[in-house]
Amino acid sequence: MSLPGSSDTSPGVTQRADEERQDDAVPGRVRRSTGAVAGIAAVAAALGAAELVAGVIERAPSLVIAVGDVVVDSVPGWLERAAIATLGRADKPVLIGGVLLISVLVGAALGVLARRRFLPAAGGFVAFAALGVAAALTDPRATLPGALLVAVAGAAVGVGVLWSLIRTARADRAAGTAATPPAGPTGVAGATVAGPGRPPESDRRRFLVVAGGTTALAVLAGVGGYLLSGRERLGQLRAAIRLPAPFRQAGPVPAGADLEIPGLTPLFTPNERFYRIDTALRVPIVEPDGWQLEVRGMVDEPFTLSYAELMELPQIEADVTLACVSNEVGGDLVGNARWQGVPLRTLLDRAGLQEGATQLVGRSVDGFTAGFPVLTALDLEEAMVAVAMNGEPLPAEHGFPARLVVPGLYGYVSATKWLAAIELTGWDVDGYWIPRGWAKEGPIKTQARIDVPRPGSTVTAGRQPIAGVAWAPTRGIEGVEVRIDDGPWQPAELAEPLDVDCWRQWFLPWDAAPGRHVISARATDGRGEVQTDERTPVAPDGASGYPVIEVEVGR
């Protein structure tokens, strides 16, 4: 209920309503809402066509992904860190969704403009296509001809669909204006018949069906382009690869290394559950036949290897736990796998290091870079160019055909996926994340995590296990302690060790009493250093502190 003299609508809503009535008063003029729908459908058609062409043509880029990549590379470091901390693994879908949402809003605006001035609206499609080309050319994999073909296809389809829908809407409006409602017995127009200046409902429905059908076809085209992008073929190529036997195999898993407690993280993380944090909005599809690895920079003998040549070199196996620097205390951005590949030392010995070559920089096919001390690559026998993970060729999501695996370092300085080049440089060269506020060196901190019971869960009173994993790659885990509420630290029982580079399971039998309880844990590494209780954020060099959970014990 409104007071006398008041209005239930805002000035903006009133203005739009007035504009709609003005449009209704002009024969053949398209309403704003209709123009917006036409623009959205046109943008959808443009994006769908562009994605389809990108999927069909080799090395043709996705313009949506290209724009998203530019956004990722351009945002301030603090914002990028906040996005990873807040969204975790959902950061990439959210960013792509944001690019699509902005495209839809721009399309709606261009559709409204096209009602009266079509050429400027068409120019808007061309401008956005040009923006996509500029963004695509920042990717070293993209080619100018491929980017232009994708952009031209998308812009042409978008402009054509917009023209068709606006023309259809004008014809419907003209037909509706010409229609004269029949008079009733008293000479008053029948209540069920649309009045002058408004198209019949059947014509309105026809326009919406055409616009909706166009959008649906655009979605199918986009999905088709994704399916044609080589992912299925890559799966077939991976399945045909036969891994060579390593000259040095990882040791057998000792009895008691996997406690097999329900809810406890397994000793080896399945490939499909291994965490993924990287800057690629879409997983690069790299076929092994066309792939090459360059070893260059401050070396005496630079060289290039094909995939077949890399696979012919002597390989090793190693059980290594990898962790993301963005992993919060108690988080799940950590995983353990059995890796197979060529030792970095083998490649560096062949190249010959020059004086001043203090840093090894891995370069990805998409331009990502990460650097770490050369001495680390020389000192650690397990540092490798990995080609396999848990007994199968690398999954595409984890770097196929080759990636770097370096024990003891967070991934942001070492774990280059979709590896294209190994470059030896001085320490003054910075990898991708360093200018964005992360530390130059990234040793993994000693950490423990509580897996059982789950935080916030309710357990039954009586004997219950408290269990988890702890890791300190290159140092190993020598002990884990658990504290219940404000009680003393109690030593947990450790699973048999597998390797100093991978995590170790632990558990503590607990006589759980009814009520709410706080459980903490801390690890001691192989050097005798105890996990610190000082809480720090993930930036700039990894989070620290004890994992702490609360559980409810029922009667």
UniProtKB/TrEMBL annotation:
A GO term for molecular function: sulfite oxidase activity
The positions making up the signal sequence are: none
List the keywords (alphabetical). Answer: Membrane, Transmembrane, Transmembrane helix
Where, by residue number, does the polypeptide cross the bilayer? 36-57, 94-113, 118-138, 144-166, 207-228
Q: Which residues form the Oxidoreductase molybdopterin-binding domain?
A: 281-433
Q: Where is the composition biased (Polar residues)?
A: 1-13
InterPro entries cross-referenced by the UniProt entry:
Ig_E-set, OxRdtase_Mopterin-bd_dom, OxRdtase_Mopterin-bd_sf
Regions of biased composition (Low complexity) lie at 176-196
Spell out the Gene3D superfamilies in the cross-references: 2.60.40.650, Oxidoreductase, molybdopterin-binding domain
Q: Its GO biological process terms? A: sulfur compound metabolic process
* Record-given protein name: DMSO/TMAO reductase YedYZ, molybdopterin-dependent catalytic subunit
Phylogenetic lineage: Bacteria, Bacillati, Actinomycetota, Actinomycetes, Geodermatophilales
